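ok so heres the complex, three chains, lmk if somethin looks off
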Amino acid sequence: MKEDGNLAKKNDAFDLEQTLECGQCFRWEKQQDGSYTGVASGRILNISEQNRGHVLDDPFWKQYFDLPLDYEEIRENLAADDPTLARAAKFAPGMRILNQEPWEALCSFIFSQNNNIPRIKGIVSRFCVGFGEKIGSGYYAFPKAEKIAGLCEQDLAPVRSGFRAKYILSAARKVAQGEVDLEALKTAPLPEARESLMTIHGVGQKVADCTLLYGLHRLEAFPMDVWMKRAMRTLFPGREPESFGEYAGIAQQYIFHYSRNHPELFVTEKESAAVGM
DNA sequence: GTCCAGGTTTTTA
DNA sequence: TAAAAACATGGA
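and the predicted structre for the whole thing:
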């Protein structure tokens, strides 16, 4: 285990809990011993504070956890930009944006709409168990778009995804037919990529932006859900997402996670709304 | 029983 | 255009 100062510094900016429980992914489970077990691109991994040095020797996982990117520097630049953003970033300095499979991110955030995180996890899990390839005892790969494209709404009933099932089918068919070319969207101009995703029935701007940020690693994408809208109104009045720069998506993740864990920041706004002010 | 959840589509005025 | 309502499901 030889680590030069540079690598050691970068590892400081990687915290498992902050990364895997900040709302960007739905397939990692914390074990009793504090480690995390999950599946990505058909690979099973158990990662802990103890074995992560070894895990990150593997090129795939190094990329998955976005180790090549210097989050320390990005965080410092964002912090210099705005004191509130500095506070949000400091709350989870070890958070990193994962390199998830594009198709998985697309489906996950279709399932996420008007839904809560525990239930999203359950739906994703049933989706994988029901339609994914078995890759180990109790572990399944994320189902292929080609397989899902051949199903009907009734087939998806056991997933219990409600009205979102037909959206998944629309996504699967467009992806399987190449009508939406996810790989190409990694380099397409952002507005163009977003528009392409929004041709899928059930994908609006927010789900498209989540797919871009979490699945296609478009770090300038800035998903605006109810939390982010509230956070922008309250904490960053007058600021546009684009003003956060090329790593706006990372700023978004700091703000989202910070806001969800500090609901007290928004109680006055809630009360004002209730009174009708 | 009612409300809400990392939205989007459909309906209505 | 813009604002409601509907959409499935399940936990609080």
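quick notes: Confidence is low (pLDDT under 50) at residues 1-10 of chain A. thats all i got rn
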